[in-house]
Structure formats: structure tokens, C-alpha cells
Amino acid sequence: DETEFRNFIVWLEDQKIRHYKIEDRGNLRNIHSEDWPKSFEKYMKDVNCPFKIQERQETVDWLLGLAVRLEYGDNADKYKDSTPDGAKNADNTAKNAEPLINLDVNNPDFKAGVMALANLLQIQRHDDYLVMLK
Question: Whole-structure pTM over 0.90, yes or no?
Fold first, then answer.
């Protein structure tokens, strides 16, 4: 959608890239103008984007990369000790590799779950729900 694309470009410039001074962003912010493509092309040259304005996906990817670089540069101390989500998930996966180890068999919810499972599987009832579970 053309309007969404233009709004996205304006948002990136206003919030993250901030290449232009606020008062110089008027032409880029006027997303309904017929001259907006010219303003966008000038903007792309000003930020040294290597792609043509017709290459939308490449342009968006490049601008997002620029925004991330600038965001990191502004907040390097905040991000320097960050770990990727994948690394955090790897730790959690190791902890959760044996989920049955941490089960509390005395929990009433556990007992109710075993009973419900037995009913679903049509397993004969037993006085000891752990025997029934086996």
C-alpha cells in the first residue's frame, strides 16, 4: 500500500534515522503530495542509499539497517551486553529438556489431569493415580 509505505518512511526518518532537521522534513511528511516521490528520491540520495526508489524491498531493508545502526550507535552501552533471543532460548531449552523432572506429583492439578487423561483414554480406574498414570 502506497500510503503505508510513505507513512513508514516518514516514521523511520522522524523516530530513528533523523537525518533531516525537523523543519526540513515537511516535503517528506506531505505523503499525499504528487511531488512525494521526488522528495523521497532526494532523501534517498541524502542518506546515501545505494538503491533506486523503484527497488522498494531493497530500499526498505537498507533503511531499516541504517535505522538499526543509528539506534545502536545512540545506545551502544544499553545494547553491548545484550544476547540474541536464540541464545536465551538455548538456555531455556536445556533447562526444559526434561520437563517431567520438575513435576509435583502431589499437586491436586496433576492428579486431576491424570484422572482426566484416564477418562479420555478409557483406562480403568485405580485407587493410586500414579499406578493409573503408568
Answer: no
